[in-house]
Amino acid sequence: MMLTKVHHAAIICSDYETSKNFYVNILGLRVINEVYREERDSYKLDLEIGNAQIELFSFPNPPERPSYPEARGLRHLAFEVENIEETVLHLEKHGVTVEPVRVDEWTGKRFTFFSDPDSLPLELYER
Q1: The whole model's pTM is what?
Q2: How much of the chain, in percent, has pLDDT values that exceed 70?
Q3: Which 3 state secondary structure label does DSSP give 10?
Q4: What Å distances lie between residue 12 and 1, 24, 77, 93, CA to CA?
Q5: Cβ contact 52:58 at 8 Å
Q6: CA angle, corner 35, sides to 68 and 56, nearest 5?
Q7: What DSSP assignment string belongs to 11-75?
Q8: Domain VOC, which positions (predicted)?
Q9: 108: left (phi over 0), alpha (psi -120 to 50) or beta
Q10: Distance from C-alpha of 26 to C-alpha of 13, rounded to nearest angstrom
């Protein structure tokens, strides 16, 4: 078995239109495909991010995330950015709360965290 890249990450949201606006209009991800699956009362939105994708799903009454961020399973999703200050200013301009920028003690790279509309922890990691 030879894994070659991460193809996609899947996110389940509680309010589809709010999350779609966040990922498309605030984070700037490109819509690849959007479908409504009537039998599941669920939307699936495929978004492009670099060479990977995010699948944004809506389901009726999804359970809440057990804790932030230390629940078992995926801890957070990290996005690489060219300029962390510009990205933080852009997010704050759109009402997104961003933690103070820190420096990774092992790589010397700057990073910070913020949340999507469902409090999913997201990271910015400067190239």
Answers
A1: 0.89
A2: 98
A3: strand
A4: 29, 15, 13, 25
A5: no
A6: 15
A7: EEES-HHHHHHIIIIIS-PEEEEEEEEGGGTEEEEEEEETTEEEEEEE-SSPPPPSSSS-SSS--
A8: 5-127
A9: left
A10: 16
Q: What is the dihedral of CA 3, 84, 68, 24, to 10 degrees?
A: -70
Confidence at residue 75, expressed as pLDDT on a 0 to 100 scale? 82
| Average pLDDT score, the chain | 93
Residue 69 and residue 119 in contact, taking contact as beta carbons nearer than 8 Å: no
Distance, CA of 29 to CA of 81 (rounded, Å): 13
Domains of the chain: 1-61 (3.10.180.10), 75-127 (3.10.180.10)
Helix (H) or strand (E) holding 120: none
| Residues forming beta bridges with residue 48, ordered by sequence position | 30, 53
